[in-house]
Amino acid sequence: MTFGEHVFSYCERGTDAALWAEPINAISNAGFILAALVAWQLLLWRPPEERSPDHFLLIGLTFLIGLGSLAFHVYADQGTELSDVIPIGLFMMVYLGFDLNRFLSVSPGWTVLIVTGFAAIVAATMQVQCWAGGVGIPGAEIVGAKPCLNGSIAYLPALGALIIMGMVLTERHHRAAPYVIWAAIIFTGSILLRSVDMSFCDRVVIDGRNVGTHFIWHILNAVVIFLLLLASLRAGPVFDAVAKKAPKPPVVVPAELASVEIVRTEAAPAEAVSAEDAPEKEQPKLASADEKATAKDETPTEQVESKSDDDTSGKDGAEESEADKHEETEPKMP
User: Whose CA is closest to 229, among 81, 48, 87, 41?
Assistant: First the structure.
């Protein structure tokens, strides 16, 4: 590969090798710079404990995407093409790892494994080309093979990852789900517009120049990245904003078990109280000898009188019964 060799892949440049042959495509990269600046300010407004190195890394990669794409659409050679492609690829892998680890709580080991597999899929997709009557990795005998969809096929794995991630986050009611879903929808439109750049070259004209649709790809992608950066600021635990868990029904405890638990609960504090802190128990008072004598003297007179009356009545009754018996035994004279 010759780094100084010019690349003529877009409508606006055509076959012109001049530096300013793509002014619209170059200026439209300001969208990435603006997205990075706004996201940077939003991050600084957040409390320090809610920031992480991942946030700064993603914003820094967004700056590099804008600068790399600007350099490519100004110089348009294979060297500057790498400065355009590499930051985009790094952003996709870093953001996928961020999603897996921070949104879905995937372990670091599995995150690295999935991101590595994703990078391998992207690298394999970039080798796929199209030619008359065929699609695949061309051999030496194939003539006229070109990257499919004007090179947009390499972004299809990223689109698929966004769609899957958005569906999973939506199912879990995560607060970042709407941002990822809208990013996937807009990214679908931007890939389509990038793919038809050459086909609509003579239909999109600005100031008498055929510019195609590649500059719209830049603008829409800046929106996509900004939405993803906003989603990253909402990383955290899964938030259920719609469906709340129903409270658990109360457990019915049998009366016997309930009484046992109550006894245990009441007994626990008594055991916890130390002997020193426990209040002194009231001891029964022992009556002295004087108090006993006084108690005897204070016996009610009514009881004494009733007792004497009972004794007198008992004696009289006994005498009367003996007299009656004597009268019954004596014989009566005629």
Answer: 41
